[in-house]
Amino acid sequence: MAPPSSPGRSFFRKLAVLPVVFSLRFALKPSRPASCFICAAASGVALASSAFRRAVVSARHNPVPQSYEPVEVAMYHARQTMLNVEESDRLSFLPDLFGNDFLAGEMQVYALAEKHITDYCGGFWHFIRIPEGGGYMMPDGDRFHLTNPDNWFDRSVSADAAGVIITALAINRRIWLHHERGDAALTRHLMLRESQLWNFIDSHDECAAIYAALD
User: What Gene3D superfamilies does the database record attribute to this sequence (predicted)?
Assistant: First the structure.
């Protein structure tokens, strides 16, 4: 099979109206630690070993907040007051972004964060939807220092830009993996998500830094 041609830089480009970014961000209160999963297992809750391992890893990277509060955030083309995001909405985000590859896709994001974000040691991730469809994951924080040994990128960027970079890298790797496995439907789904994310990058305030990181 011929390698996939990503439509992100060549096709589906919007020539008229730039998108408005509706960033789903949260103000957090103390969260339950990963040890809650261990206590649940010790008290007799039946967990498959693979599911248990993933639960502990996911808890370290994405602890479950006890509550959400509205928070006003700066938008790239508007300023909005974002409302509480229910847990059910968060649960639907990853399958919508990665398709039926969402479990591995989430782990790919965490692995790439550990590789490219200096001193990254887990934490809460915001799920950001973009109007065109799809979205990206964003680490909780202000600014992060990212490096990419493949292209000598070495720069501090905002949490939003860091999330875009890491998610774009993750989607790209999943595209090639599923292309090599012959899964045409999932490859097309991920290529669409990559295209939508690149269209968003084109209008991002830190597009130059994002381009440099992904070059």
Answer: Antirestriction protein
